[in-house]
Every structure is written in structure tokens, then in C-alpha cells.
Amino acid sequence: MLIIGSESSAPVASRDTLLRASLHSVFHDGNPRLIFQPINFREKKSGITRISFSSQYALLKLATPSASGSNDMDDSRHQRRILKAAEGYLELDLPEQALRELDQIKTTDEFRCRYHILRGEAFRQREEFEAALLSYHKSHCGEPENLIVLMGMAWCYKRTGQLHRSIQMMKRALEVEPDNALIQFNLACYFSLDQDKSQALSWLGRAFRQDRSLISLVADETDFDPLRDDPDFQYMIETVGTTEKQG
């Protein structure tokens, strides 16, 4: 069984070639099939791991169907496989290929939300934040508690000068998962940018109580620059850092 995922050490170009070969087999040979399993990932930017988005994308596996499986594919099954292919491309940070796959989809009610979520993610990866927000909004009415949508919208609002809306979306995400340390950490980042020291330190403290290892991200997180020289912020970072080193 062949597994293609975000932890692969192969260069992007070779992984893309391998993925396209797999998709060719799926859509033209009719023998292998694609299986997706949920995973979480952290965005990497400029070689630095940053907590900014928690996704439910998939590891792409190439497997052989059971002998009883049918090679016939009705329109609904065909569209599902295209959606899964788009998810695989997004997992490999290949938004252009994902959008090409999605262009084949007919947006029926059955796939409407998933289609717009994936388009939103593709545009977000391309840093086309206004287009991403448009797609996220189209999916939000159907899945108002989807963390991908809520955090994706927060991400894009921040980058389009709408920080208060970013905070609003992140608070909605917390209503879905109140103890999610990554959401709490992001909320602390946004309040720091908003010059709200009290809220920033409050949410940062909650995030550290859930996961002290997040302390390793603070030094490179520019969102906390407004608080760098604040003695209360420095005390928190020093205290948590010392505790983390002691295990």
C-alpha cells in the first residue's frame, strides 16, 4: 500500500508526480481507488512551524478494491472521488491542481458545502484571501460549526484588515471546541494585535495550561510583538518556559 502524506520527505515536485500518477490510475484504469483518513496538521511557513490552522485533511492512500467492488461509477461517486483528489492536492500544498479538480464538480446540494470549503482552502493557500472568504461564506451557512471554515475565515479576515471579525470567528471556533489549545493560542495572538493586553494574556495562559509546548512558538510569533516589552508578558513566558524545561 502506497501512502502519500504531509510527512513525506520527498520533494514537492516528485510527490506531485507520484500523486498525479495515482490519480491517473483512479480515473482512467478503474482499478485502484483513493481512501482518505482524517489528520491534523500545522502550517509551515519559511521553515518555522506556526500554529495557525487546524485542518481535517487526509493522508492519500492507494489501495486495491475488493473483488466484489464494481468498476461502474455513477455521477455521485465520481464527484466524491474528485473531491477527495482535491483534498489530496491541498494536503500537498498544491492549490492550483486542487482548483482544477474542483472545476469538474457540479455543485449539487449533496456536495455544496464540501465543495466551497475546499475552494476556500485552495484560495487561502494561494493567498487570495477575498476569494477564500467568499467561498467560506458560501459553505458557512450549511456547516456553521465547521472548524476548517471558522478558522479559515479568521485567518483571512486578519489578512484583509478585519481583525475584529477574526476575533469573532475564533470565538465561534471556541464554542465548538472550548479546550482547543491552538484556538486559544490564536485568539491570544489576535488580541495582542488588537492591543488588548488583558485578553491576550488571559487566552495565552489558558493555551499554556492546555499545552505548555506552545511556548516554543512565541519567540517567532510576530503577533506578540506589541507585548514583547511588557513585564507581565515577559514574566509569563519566563515562568512557562522554565516549567517546560523542567518537564
Structural write-up:
The chain contains 11 helices and 5 strands, in the order E-H-E-E-E-E-H-H-H-H-H-H-H-H-H-H. The two termini are about 40 Å apart. The radius of gyration is 20 Å and the shape is elongated. The strands form 2 sheets. A 3-stranded antiparallel β-sheet has the order 1-5-2, covered by helices on one side. A two-stranded antiparallel ribbon has the order 3-4. The chain is mainly alpha-helical and about 250 residues long. It folds into 2 domains: about 1-180, Serine Threonine Protein Phosphatase 5, Tetratricopeptide repeat (Alpha Horseshoe), CATH 1.25.40.10; about 185-245, no CATH class.
Name the average pLDDT: 75
- The total count of strands amounts to 5
What is the CATH C-level name of the largest domain?
Mainly Alpha
Largest sheet: 3 strands, antiparallel
Domain tally: 2
Question: CATH superfamily of the largest domain, called what?
Answer: Tetratricopeptide repeat domain
In the predicted model, the low-confidence regions spanning at least 5 consecutive residues are: 1-73
Quickly give the CATH architecture of the largest domain.
Answer: Alpha Horseshoe
Distance between the amino and carboxyl termini: 39 Å
Q: What shape does the CA trace take?
A: elongated
CATH topology of the largest domain: Serine Threonine Protein Phosphatase 5, Tetratricopeptide repeat
- Number of helices, where a helix is a run of at least 4 consecutive DSSP H or I residues: 11
* DSSP helix fraction: 55-70%
Helical/strand content category = mainly alpha
Rg from alpha-carbon coordinates = 20 Å
User: Which H/E pattern describes the elements?
Assistant: EHEEEEHHHHHHHHHH
Strand content: 5-15%
Which strand order does the major sheet show? 1-5-2
